[in-house]
Amino acid sequence: MKAFPSKSLGLILSGGGVRGMAHIGVIRALNEYDISANVVSGSSVGALVGALYANGNSVTEMLSFFKETPLFKYNFLTIVKPGFIDTDRYFDVFRVYFPEDSFEKLKRKLHVVATNLQNGELAYFSEGELIGPLLASAALPPVFSPVELNGQLYADGGIMNNFPSEPVEGKVDFLLGSNVSVVSHLEKNALKNSLQLTGRVTGLMIYAINRKKLESCDLLLEFKGLEHIGVLDRKGIEKAYAIGYDQARASLDTLLSQKS
To answer: 44 an active-site residue?
Structure first.
């Protein structure tokens, strides 16, 4: 592990639903050490947190965004699109935070990944309109409907790339990864039903696919305890945030003490 450089830092933020509030805790810890990322790459909730960070929003504003944005709202339900909730209905909510709707207007370089459902390929977005790609990257099937961009349907970036380090690798001096799609030991009684089993299997698949990229980070932050927070459990926002902050602070303390 090499110490933080004086030049450039790349921050990679994984997908993981409400568990992604740990990313905000990481950003708080970085701020307290006066460490700033030059470029950010994110998938799903990591794309949303990354966009807020790149936009210059404070930690308090980031938390407010997720607390105040409704996950389930009656008039957002749809029967005419694939998915229970019409993702396009969130456009106006996002415009409050990103009124200029432009990657170029952000204060840091941002890369967002989404999955093209029609041709089965990844797409990276880093210029032009911002809100559409953000909504697409976080549109988790089958809860949220796909987002149409340039005549193609896009959904959650985590389907094919939950840890999008590719746009940043080789372009910065130090790569810091925050992975909230954790895989820890589960007791046998934690797999009581089909939903829990499906969640566990999906988590194992995502982790296996991204393991090499995770290991390539100069500093990788992963967080014990997050697996017990549901992906869509809004009650876990503060807990996930605290877990992220505490562990990031401890890791940075250790790393920077080695440097000195």
So the answer is: yes
